[in-house]
Each structure stands twice: as structure tokens, then as C-alpha cells.
Amino acid sequence: MTVQLIDADEYVETERVPEVLKRLGDVQAAAEAHPLGLRDGLACFNHLYTVITSQVQDDYLDGSFSNGDFITRLDVAFANRYLRAVDEHVDGSPAPWRCLLKLRSDGRISPLAFAVVGVSAHVNFDLAFAVVETGEQMGRLSLIDHDDYQHLNDIFFREMRRLRQHFEDPAERRFERALGLTTLENLIGDAVVVIARYLAWEKAKRLWASRHDGSADEAAEGATARSVGAFNHALLMFDSTVRHAFTALVGNGGRS
Hints:
The structure is a single chain. The chain has helices at 13-32, 41-61, 68-87, 95-103, 111-138, 143-167, 170-179, 182-209, 214-255. With 256 residues, the protein is mostly helical. The chain has one domain. Helix 2 (41-61) packs across helix 5 and helix 7 packs across helix 9 (214-255).
């Protein structure tokens, strides 16, 4: 798969997010051509990413952002990091994405777990560096930009629960109901997104302060890749073993 990266300066502000959506459409088509189709690991996350990005575009057109230049540049910088990761050979992809790409065809892993790992890679690993890149393009990183950044949390709140239901199959829903997890998982999911995005902004501020020290940026990116990659791999392993076994048990119990 070859996906061309986007140069924000080649597009007027109103064309940037639609261009991102075009690239995500290319990724989706290529991912669904893999053996698992819609349940392919990359296809699962890319679907979620496309829905969220479409909502960013809708809110942009509705005038919900105070600085369209910032939010559209950030959308492009954020997308480019993802496109670059999935376009690499698997072994050359950053660790947070590598485990998803290596295990994308494992049918024991739930679509929801693939989507969650993709969100983890993109928010916990990519986001802070994308914010700094956007700040460098604009020559500033300010509180005004932070307000628009925070508005993205509203989009996540609107969409994430519906997307979560989209990825669950009946057996997984029975598993969650049996253990009383549905409401708890929704609350935890909301909190995790808010905290992760808060930490990403705080990291971006630290990176912004040291942006002229290339070695510091490289060290920070390497350390983040290792920690997020280890977390993501552990989550996929848990899902493919413990959660898969319990879901199968509950599913069999529901049919007996």
C-alpha cells in the first residue's frame, strides 16, 4: 500500500480535512482487501478514525473552531504520522503501530481491541508530535489553539460510545452484560481519552520548549514509542487470550 502524504501548504484551509478523508478512504479500501475484510485490524481503527475526522470536518464547517488554520493543519499533521506508519514495511513501522499491523489478521482479537490500540497509538504516541509540528508551521503554540484542541474532546464524547457499539458483536455484548461492564467501560473510555489528550498537550508544551534541541526530540519520541508499543502489545495479547476465552465461554453459555 502506498499512500501519499499531505502538504498542508498545498491546500487552502477548507480543502485540508477533505484531503485527509480521501487518504483515509484509500487506506480503508486497501485494508478491507485483507483476509478479515471489515474485521481486519487496520480496517477497524481506520473506520473509527474516518468517522472522527468526518465529525471534525462537520464542526469546522459549522464554525465550532475559533482558528480554522490551526485545526486543519493539526488534522493534516496528525494524519500524516498515521499514514507514514501504516505505509511503512511492518518491521519499520513505529512500535505503537507495529503490533497492530503484525496482528491485524488474528481473528481472536476483537475489532474493538484493534480500534482501541489504534487510538492509543495515535493519541499517546502521535498527537504531541503533531501538535508541535503544527505549532512550528504557524510559529506559535498558544492558549487559543488549546481551546480548539479541547473541542476535539467533545467530538470524541459524541462518537466514541456509538463507535464502541459498532465494533461489538453479540457475544461480546453478552460478555459485558454478564460482568456488568458496559456502563463502566463507557465511563473509563471517556476518562482515558480526556487524560490521554491532556497528557499529549502537556508533552507538546515540553517538546515545544525544547524544539531547537533535535536530540531531545528524538529521545522523547523513542521513549514514547517504546512505552506505548509495550502497552499496545500487552492489550492485544490480553484480548486474544483472556477476553477471547471468556467471550467464547459466555457465548456458549448463552446458546445452551
